[in-house]
Amino acid sequence: MHLIMFDIDGTLVESYDFDTECFQAAIRDVLGIAIGSDWSCYRHVTDSGILAEIVAESGFHSDRERIEAKVKEQFVSRVADYISCHEVSPIPGAYNFLSQLVSRQNVSVAFATGGWAESARMKLNAAGLSFPSIPLASSSDHNSRIEIMRLAERLVGTDHYDSRTYFGDGPWDQKASETLGYNFISVGHRISSLQSIRDYTEADVALRYIGL
What integer pLDDT is reported at residue 59 of this predicted model? Predict the structure, then answer.
């Protein structure tokens, strides 16, 4: 059995840019501060992880839970507003590739995203990638990407895998995969890796990297 796990923003959905803008705007709306878009400076590059660090550094410890809930609410609302007015595209070939994997008897598929579950599902649905049978672990579950990936693996429920592969588009995806011993495949051109595909129209290349 082969476990194949996917990030979402920039990996399955063309949402990295607007997702970043919505997150920055939500922070500005609630906390009144401007943040940059270099997520690599944060310990945990997930929605909850970045937010927790910003709240701690800004001195809002005593009101942390209320502030974090308000930022999340504002962010999810902004993502919903964006989706209602704009077309959200999947990474080319993503639907066919996921469909092919789901249909295989020797493959288990999971989503493991640094985004919150509510916005992640919205983006998948808007991009035509609604796969209810695929379990999803997210920043709603933990602020650490490594722990999110571990949870996604548990949600699939298989005890042993011949291989474990993670598709991602950020250096944090690559780092988490290395830590957990996952086979890593980068999608797009945001980072360089030994195994890389432009998009899922290169399905044959991706399957070869997985070992299928």
Answer: 76
Instruction: Quote the CATH superfamily of domain 2-14+89-210.
Output: HAD superfamily/HAD-like (3.40.50.1000)
Q: Quick check: 9 and 22 in contact, CB under 8 A? A: no
**Cβ atoms < 10 Å from Cβ of 170:** 23
Residues 165, 209: contact at Cβ < 8 Å?
A: yes
CB 79 within 8 A of CB 122: yes
Cβ–Cβ < 8 Å for 71, 30:
yes
65 Cβ contact partners less than 8 Å away, ≥ 6 residues apart: none
Residue 111 phi/psi, 5-degree rounding, is -105, 135
Q: Give the bridge partners for 164, in sequence order.
A: 3
Region 71-77: mean pLDDT is 96
Residues 88-137 have pLDDT tens digits of: 999 999 999 999 999 999 999 999 999 999 999 999 999 999 999 999 99
Q: Which of 66, 48, 58 is nearest to 28 (CA)?
A: 58
Alpha-carbon separation of residue 191 from 45, 50, 171 (angstroms):
15, 20, 7
Please compute, for residue 45, the number of CA atoms within 13 A of its CA located in the half-sphere on the CB side: 17
pTM: 0.94
